[in-house]
Amino acid sequence: MIWEPNYECLSREDMQSIQLDRLQSVVGNVYNRVPHYTKLFDEHGVKPEDIKHIEDIRKLPFTTKEVLSNNYPYGLFAVPLKEIVRIHSSSGTTGKQKVVGYTKRDIRTWANLIARIATMAGVTDEDIAQICFGYGLFTGGFGLHYGLEKLGAMIVPASTGNTERQITMMQDFGTTVLVSTPSYALYMVEVAEEMGVDTSKLKLKVGLFGAEPCTLNMRKEIERRWNMKVTDNYGMTELGGPGVAGECECGEGMHINEDHFFPEIINPETGEVLGFGETGELVLTSLTREAFPMIRYRTRDITMLIDEPCSCGRSTVRMKKVTGRADDMLIIRGVNVYPSQIETVLLETEGVAPHYQLIVTQHNYMDDLEVQVELSGDNFSGKFKELEELERTLRGKINKALQISVRVKLLEPKSLERTVGKAKRIVDMRPKE
Ligand code: AMP
Ligand code: ZN
What we know:
The protein is of the alpha/beta class. It has eleven helices and 22 strands. The chain has two domains: about 1-325, ANL, N-terminal domain (Rossmann fold), CATH 3.40.50.12780; about 335-430, ANL, C-terminal domain (GMP Synthetase, Chain A, domain 3). The two termini are about 30 Å apart.
């Protein structure tokens, strides 16, 4: 089934005509209503009237994530606060970075887009969906919730945590759709196995997974151990959350909801726009969001666009799975982590030097982050007990700042390699394929 064939199966020409209409309207809106864009467009000498063809989007300047923090919290809203009915914020931070707003219509559109991607994955109104995403500022919980409800599925709003209870719910309620991060799905199956649950006896049919990369091996492992089909979907807070793209049952990339998000791929170094089949940074323009439109937002996610027809019947452009980032953001168990957040904590803590390295590994497909930090010279003679105390304090502070748990390892002064250029902060040893 296709949720909205009128939009998902259009000819290229018809799609572009809708995109152009909507682009003209959103560009006019931001230019007239958001001071940041008025200034930026003026600086670039571009006016809304200059958008005559869809390719004219290239005349517009990019938006970067710094623009969001510089305009924190409400500076980029394109409607008065009175019309905002909800805000969300990015994962893993204390809410200082990216705040996005939604009007009533935005919430309805969002639900519809999630209904589209869930339908792509094979979910129907017969299904029972257990949502194991946090319900809160993170977009995942509420986003999937409203969309699946719109689709008519029955929802178990389980949220995160208490894994044994999650599994009991699956058994008792007859869950057929699991909504979570792939890493949590793997952790859950481990717990299920420890509980002696025969997963082949569960009713699970499909996993709607997103928020972090999932390697092919990880996918196979989840499919085998849970005995269900795994699908990927993509989105981010800045563009309103999940609902940007989703994988259909053919499993050959994720269909982008192109009538709502205009995709481009650029060379992350030069900003040059690349063609289909070329790998680069994904840039998205939201075409229909009222409260929080984004013009040419640089996602920093590395992927590729495919325009070949898909055998599912949808004609929307697809994106391949995300293979990396163009910045230093790490995704640890579904939570976005920037080295600078850790650095801030280290700088605030007496006894350690600002020389550190983040070691990321994976055990049983679960991400593990170890923060290795050097003791400052004058502390090195410290007693074991004091060192233990320092380690505990640091761990506590970092866990609080990142909202995930990490391990801390104190190193002797000057034990990390010094470089003349950019310090190598991240050693990511997780499998890439
Ligand atoms: P957030 O704003 O917390 O939802 O995080 C958004 C970021 O998570 C994106 O920019 C991607 O880097 C990552 N992400 C989201 N969905 C996926 C996915 N399906 N595969 C890989 N990375 C993803
Ligand atoms: Zn398809």
